[in-house]
């Protein structure tokens, strides 16, 4: 007998049939179902007696009626037999049979296991002739849009959220569910109350969905009292309003980590919905939540919509867009459809950010429909040609009448705001590909830079790898003034007395990394008072700006930088002022080998590092993770990092991903290894810094506040003019719950 089959037979029938991670393929499910007879069945989470009243009531009545039931029970507005119901990932559950026998006879069951569909069809073909059985992948179900009155999901969402499926399948599945439901239809999801999974489900049904949350009564004989089953009911509205979730749950009756974590996830989601309820003008709606409610293939004069485009498995990145259909009587159009890409340095300008300014573009381009794409900091990691390639299949769906299907998408890229540019270095690295260094002068700089540097124009030196700007540094004069270009010439040259300023970190995530050092403030005190150095490893050199800043301003740090590409090291030395000394050393090495062999190299078997920073960019095209590469986030590496760190040591990761679903399993992995995990959300929702403290003692909110104050005091005493940015960032560091 195969091992998988032996595991199956040992499972409690009320639990999932196998440990998650074993059965993420159709073949595995076929093995499972083929090993069972026609009378065998699995009722995950709850049996019919626990579901009957709650489930049938929600099928027959809208949530508005159930919220305020009249004294006399009302008559259903629709007959049970007339409701078209879809049961995805049906398995061999008896749920559909019970529904059929209760009068809901128009049921379509879907599963991608041919074995179970064949068994269930044979079992029901005579007794329940109207019931349909289809072999389909639930992420790509082939039914017309707005076909069903209800989708009843009993465990399918939980299975799809297994890390083995990745983020693609859950996104495709929910998009399909939204498409298949009629207005007024309901998605009814039965799931274990895993806070991260339900929290993501809350996010997926934000715009135009009314939602209730219920706890399912457990059988008195249930042996799984620690795992409470919940039912989420999401009802499709014909608007894009944000409704608050109604929890029909008394959380005082439920104890343990599961209930506490779910309550916290519900509070976070409620806070988000409350915040945005009063600011609808600032909302960007997922395309799927607008497309299914209106025909965007037709022009509607004067229409303006704020959209998000893309998702994991659909595109490499996500984008914010503004769709504008020309006003009535706009005259002749040169183009029916145009996509205008706005670089991040221009998005705050009035003509780009205001509604009035956006309509000016529609008039100037003489276009029937203009789609403005507002780039964000996350997009700076990708060259413009990659962004256009990624956008092309997304924006074609928004062309009026699909007029550009099969035709090259008409893109226009707004000026990137660069007044002058000089390329100082170009090469091709065998490790990183094309690399360049250029000096630029922007037409406008951000407020933080203008406050710090009192120059009319700033020369910014940039490191560009594979077409993406990975680092920016300000050039200043050794004599205290910046040498600016000749105003009568179209070129300029940074003079020999110019140098990179290492007293200022322009990067938000670098400031965030520095602010996170407050988490080891007690460790710092012990080490510095005894004259010991804080042994710090930074994986990823880049332009060398972070380690040089640490060398200059954190005298208690002994810094070892691990870099794989010698070309990058040469650039950091020759163009960005990297200077090594006894406190800062750069090693061209494999970081895993260096860390593993460090005790031997130090001649001390108990040698540990105090701080480990990972600041590298993924080279994988189309990866959901932009920073770092996945190898630094998997559990085996996290356990190794814990081993390499001293007691109270700190592991710091710069994380960049467009997809919220990627974060949830990452947080879970970190929490399995480290007792104290914190996050700092940066300017946009794609960038964050994760801190994992190698301490088993819990860190309270009061302790965080004290650490922030100590950091602020030390920086102010040192009169560091860069300190306020670090202080502000430290106050935003929050524990991961």
Name some characteristics of this structure.
32% helix; 9-stranded mixed sheet; disordered N terminus; alpha/beta; 737 residues; 8-stranded mixed sheet; 28 strands; 24 helices
Distance between the termini: 42 Å
Please give the number of β-strands: 28
Q: What structural class do helix, strand and pairing data support?
A: alpha/beta
Mean pLDDT: 81
Q: Rg to the nearest angstrom?
A: 29 Å
Overall geometric form: globular
Low-confidence stretches: 1-22, 220-225, 482-492
Strand content: 15-25%
Number of helices: 24
User: How does the major sheet shape up?
Assistant: 9 strands, mixed
Oligomer: single chain
Helix content: 25-40%
Explain this structure to me?
- Strands 20, 21, 22, 23, 24, 25, 26, 27 and 28 form a 9-stranded mixed β-sheet that branches. An 8-stranded mixed β-sheet has the order 3-2-1-4-5-7-6-8. It has a 6-stranded mixed β-sheet with strand order 9-10-11-13-12-14.
- It contains 24 helices and 28 strands.
- The chain starts with a helix and ends with a strand.
- It is 32% helix and 25% strand.
- The chain is of the alpha/beta class and 737 residues long.
């Amino acid at each position: 007998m195969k091992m998988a089959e032996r595991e199956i037979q040992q499972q409690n029938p009320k639990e999932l049939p196998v440990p998650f991670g074993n059965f993420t393929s159709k073949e595995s499910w076929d093995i499972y179902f083929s090993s069972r007879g026609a009378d065998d069945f699995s009722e995950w989470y709850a049996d019919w007696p626990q579901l009957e009243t709650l489930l049938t009531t929600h099928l027959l009545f809208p949530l508005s009626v159930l919220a305020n039931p009249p004294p006399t029970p009302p008559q259903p507005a629709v007959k049970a037999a007339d409701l078209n119901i879809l049961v995805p990932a049906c398995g061999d559950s008896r749920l559909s049979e019970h529904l059929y026998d209760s009068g809901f006879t128009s049921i379509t069951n879907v599963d991608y296991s041919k074995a179970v569909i064949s068994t269930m069809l044979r079992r029901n073909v005579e007794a329940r002739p109207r019931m349909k059985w289809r072999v389909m992948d639930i992420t790509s179900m082939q039914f017309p849009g707005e076909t069903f009155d209800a989708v009843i999901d009993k465990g399918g969402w939980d299975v799809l959220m297994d890390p083995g499926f990745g983020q693609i399948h859950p996104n495709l599945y929910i998009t399909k569910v939204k498409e298949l439901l009629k207005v007024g239809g309901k998605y009814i999801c039965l799931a274990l109350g895993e806070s991260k999974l339900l929290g993501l489900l809350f996010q997926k049904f934000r715009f135009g969905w009314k939602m209730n949350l219920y706890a399912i009564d457990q059988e008195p004989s249930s042996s799984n009292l620690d795992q409470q089953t919940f039912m989420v009911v999401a009802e499709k509205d014909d608007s894009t309003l944000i409704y608050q979730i109604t929890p029909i749950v008394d959380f005082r009756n439920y104890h343990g980590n599961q209930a506490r974590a779910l309550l916290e996830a519900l509070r976070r989601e409620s806070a988000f919905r409350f915040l945005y309820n009063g600011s609808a003008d600032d909302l960007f709606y997922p395309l799927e939540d607008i497309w299914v409610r209106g025909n965007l293939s037709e022009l509607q004069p004067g229409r303006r919509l704020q959209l998000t485009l893309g998702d994991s498995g659909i595109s490499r990145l996500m984008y914010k867009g503004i769709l504008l259909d020309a006003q009535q009587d706009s005259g002749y159009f040169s183009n029916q459809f145009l996509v205008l890409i706005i670089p991040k340095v221009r998005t705050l300008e009035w003509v780009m950010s205001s509604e009035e300014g956006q309509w000016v573009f529609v008039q100037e381009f003489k276009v029937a429909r203009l789609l403005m794409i507002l780039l964000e900091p996350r997009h700076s990691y990708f060259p413009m040609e990659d962004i256009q390639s990624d956008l092309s299949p997304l924006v074609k769906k928004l062309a009026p009448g699909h007029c550009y299907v099969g035709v090259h998408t008409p893109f226009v890229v707004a000026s990137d705001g660069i007044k002058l540019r000089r390329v100082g270095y170009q090469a091709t690295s065998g490790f990183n590909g094309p690399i360049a260094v250029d000096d630029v002068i922007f037409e406008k700089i951000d407020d933080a830079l203008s406050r710090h540097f009192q120059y009319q124009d700033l020369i910014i030196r940039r490191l560009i790898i594979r077409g993406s700007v990975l680092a920016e540094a300000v050039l200043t004069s050794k004599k205290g003034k910046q040498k600016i270009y000749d105003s009568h010439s179209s070129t300029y040259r940074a003079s020999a007395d110019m140098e990179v300023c290492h007293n200022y970190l322009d990067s938000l995530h670098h400031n965030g990394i520095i602010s996170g050092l407050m988490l080891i403030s007690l460790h710092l005190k012990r080490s510095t008072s005894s004259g010991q150095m804080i042994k710090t490893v930074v994986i990823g050199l880049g332009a060398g700006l972070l380690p040089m800043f640490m060398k200059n301003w954190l005298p208690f740090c002994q810094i070892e930088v691990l870099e794989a590409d010698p070309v990058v090291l040469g650039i950091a030395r020759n163009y960005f002022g990297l200077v090594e000394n006894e406190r800062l050393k750069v090693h061209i090495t494999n970081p895993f080998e260096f860390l593993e062999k460090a005790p031997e190299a130090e001649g001390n078997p108990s040698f540990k590092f105090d701080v480990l920073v990972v600041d590298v960019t993924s080279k994988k095209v189309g990866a959901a993770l932009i920073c770092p590469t996945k190898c630094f986030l998997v559990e085996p590496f996290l356990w190794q990092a814990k081993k390499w760190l001293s007691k109270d040591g700190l592991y710091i990761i710069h994380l960049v991903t467009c997809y919220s679903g990627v974060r949830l399993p990452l947080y879970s992995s970190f929490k399995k290894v480290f007792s104290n995990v914190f996050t700092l959300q940066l300017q946009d929702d794609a960038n964050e810094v994760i801190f994992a403290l190698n301490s088993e003692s819990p860190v309270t909110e009061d302790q965080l506040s004290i650490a922030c104050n100590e950091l602020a005091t030390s920086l102010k005493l040192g009169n560091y003019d860069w300190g306020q940015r670090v202080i502000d960032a430290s106050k935003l560091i929050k524990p991961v719950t």
